[in-house]
Design a protein that fits this description.
The chain is elongated. The protein has 209 residues and is mainly alpha-helical. The chain has one domain. 28% of the residues are buried. Helix content is 70%, strand content 0%. It holds the Pfam family DUF6644.
Length: 209
């Protein structure tokens, strides 16, 4: 069960244990990361800055594909210029995002907004693959066109919408508005809050002296 593994990461991995073999609360690597104000701020700041780099480079590529900006510049030149920044931003953003997730994995996993963000991410990645392997296959035929064909414009529009969804969902996931502590009905079911409750109860039993 994934919740059990995430609970292990959050409460046990790297933790100190007492003489009875129980993990001591707030000594796991996850808890130490969450409690480290400077490291947390560094990770979060770097994550936001590289998100801006990544999203900003994607924005200009999509706007060119939509025929809004750089109309007299070949699409290939725009993409070839910006792709290195996109890739660099994505790699650092992914690493810092994984570290932030590691600080509180069980809660993030059972947050319905975080799950929505993950869905947007998968859809955005699928759109990128579709664009590169299908739409861009005949780019030479429309590379210099001020307004690329409809298939390219659709891919760009989907890209903009999905990445905006990722950013907005990521921002809201940082709050506890939709956490299992307050969620009810469909939201609680979508986040599998009952599974979280069972996992936390088991953890509390194991951590009890």
């Amino acid at each position: 069960m994934l919740s059990t593994f995430l609970a292990y990461l959050q409460f046990k991995l790297g933790a100190q244990f007492d003489n009875s073999g129980h993990a001591i609360s707030d000594t796991s690597w996850s808890a130490q990361l969450q409690g480290s104000e400077r490291l947390w701020m560094l990770l979060e700041g770097t994550h936001v800055l590289t998100l801006m780099l990544f999203a900003g480079s994607i924005l200009f590529v999509d706007l060119r594909l939509l025929g809004v900006t750089f109309k007299n510049t070949p699409v290939s030149k725009v993409t070839d210029t910006l792709i290195p920044y996109t890739v660099a931003g994505f790699i650092v953003m992914l690493l810092t995002g994984a570290a932030l997730f590691f600080a509180n994995p069980l809660e993030y996993y059972h947050n319905v907004i975080f799950r929505l963000k993950f869905i947007f991410l998968i859809a955005a990645a699928a759109n990128i693959f579709y664009f590169h392997y299908r739409v861009q296959a005949n780019r030479a035929a429309w590379d210099n066109q001020a307004k690329p064909p409809a298939s390219a414009r659709r891919a760009a529009a989907f890209s903009l919408a999905l990445w905006i969804g990722v950013i907005v969902a990521g921002r809201f996931a940082a709050y506890d508005w939709f956490s299992c502590d307050t969620a009810q009905g469909f939201v609680a079911a979508a986040a599998q809050c009952s599974e979280r409750s069972v996992t936390l109860a088991a953890v509390e039993t194991e951590l009890a002296p």
